[in-house]
Every structure is written in structure tokens, then in C-alpha cells.
Amino acid sequence: MSTNLAAALKLDESAEVEKITERLRELLRSHLRRRGLVVAISGGIDSAVCAGLAVKALGRERVFGLLLPERDSAAESTLRGRMMVEQLGITHEQFDIAPALESLGCYRWRDDAIRAVFPAYSSGWKNKIVIAGGQAGRFNYFKLVVQSPDGQLFEERLDLKNYLQIVAATNFKQRVRKTMEYFHADRLNYAVTGTPNRLEYDQGFFVKNGDGSADVKPIAHLYKTQVYALARYLQLPEEICNAQPTTDTYSMVQGQDEFYFALPYDRMDIALLAYNSGQTAEQLAQALGVALEQAQFIYRDIEAKRKATNVLHWSGITIEPVVGPDSKPPVIGA
After folding, report:
1. Each residue of 103-127: pLDDT tens digit?
2. Which of 129, 131, 244, 309 has the fewest Cβ atoms surrounding its Cβ within 10 A?
């Protein structure tokens, strides 16, 4: 079963690139009516693949790259981002969004909530939020982890109020970045490229009006494993092809599976594919080599995240239906 599911994730990379690039050209010409694409390049695999696909579709002269680091961004992420834009040869700009975030209160609101849990937390400390319980098949909850300047680690379970305040404050980062993307898109008459893969898109791992906003999302139908395969097919830098997924949002290194998903991405791909293809929990347990109870939890977690985050996909709800333009966007492969 594990072999069958893994085989189902394999791509014909050449055909997939041709399909996506042709559709991007069509969408820009017939639907979006824009001259090119803006891509915010984080140094991670998803934005790198989107940038590579954009160049394949349009040529380097019609793709604009943005590097948008802030105070908590890893130096390695910025280095990989610069490596990416230099390999592609695209026009780009690096803009530090930390001063804007400081003015908006992003760091202050976050730090106030952290100090409600750890009063000693101050300048020089680092932080992250991690999810707990899920990988053991138990109810998910969140922990706050902080590191003092001398390297000591402390962690406590987060109450709802402070969890929400920390997340709300850090969501400023994605929303400010998206503001910059749309400024340059408007300036150039380009469209904004969204970079979520299928795991993120399906499970709501994005910020509404932040990284969830875009004019086109070229890889939202691709599982993370498939995105890595495309990166290697496109001959992106090895440092990017081998990079592990992180949120690059908190000052401590935070894997996506630590913060949100019940499993590391390669196993989460298998779980979501099994769920989408109607496999039973027993079949998933066999595929992943886990107990039935954990497989049942993983399915419940997929369903719960879909239900909880479905609202993130919605546009504003009108009180009454409004007769006018079709509000349903075209999808790749339609």
C-alpha cells in the first residue's frame, strides 16, 4: 500500500511543467490580462519552484522577484533567495519589512503575549510555537518554546488568549509582504503569484489576505513531494532542493510539522493522498506503519483542519446574492 501511494505521487515532470506554463500564459492573456508575474521568493522550495515555472512560462524579463526579510528571518533563507533570483536572472528587489512591522506593533504585541507566559522574556531571547499531541494520536495543543541568550530552553503550554495574540501579531508579516507584492504588481501591471502547495492549500496553512492572497496559484494542486520533484527537474540550486520546510516566521527554527501538520511533509502527503483517494484508516495505518488509532487521528485532523480553515478560502460574504460578474476563478487544468 505504501508503495502504491508513493507511486501515485510520482509525476511526469516534463508534462507537468508544460501544462502549468501553458496555463499560466493563458491565464495572464485571457483572464488576468497582465504583462507578467511577481513572485515573493522566501528561499524555500515552493516559492523557488513558482519562480522557476514563471520564468519557463514567460521568460526572465517578465518576472519580478521580491525578497522580503524581517527581524526573525533566517540568514540562510535570504541567501537561498538571492541564489534563486541570480540563477534565474530576473529583476528583483530586497526590502526589509522589519521597520514597517515595528511601526504596526507586530513585535510588541507578540512579545507582550510571550511575557504573559515567561515574564523574563526580553531582548536577545528567541521563540517559537510548536504543536503537540497530534503525532502521538492525541488531541492537538500548542506550546510556547523560548530560548534565553545563554541557550537555555523553556516551554509551557499556551493558553488560547496568548496563542491567538502571538499568531495574530506574526500574521502581520505575511500581510505586509503581500502588500509589497501587490504594490509592485500594480506598478508593473503584473499579476501576483501565490506559492502554496497542496498540503498548505488543502489544510489552510496560510494567512488570509496574507500569503493566501494571489491572482494565480501554480502549484496548489501539487503535493509537497511533487514540488520537490519539480525543483530537481527545473535544476534549481541544490541548497534549495535539499532545504527542509520551515515557517521562517519565528526567531527559533520551526518546522512546518512542528507548528501545524500532524506529520512531516512526505508522510503527510501520503496521508492526504490516501484520504483523498478514499483509503480506509486501516489502509493508511499500513501505508505509514503506524497504529490504527494514530491513522484514525490523522484522518480526523485532516477533516478538522478543512472545516476550521474553510473560511480562509472565502471572499467577503454579501448579505444578498449580487448579480454581476462570475466570481468563480478559473482553475489550472480546467
Report:
1. 999 999 999 999 999 999 999 999 9
2. 244
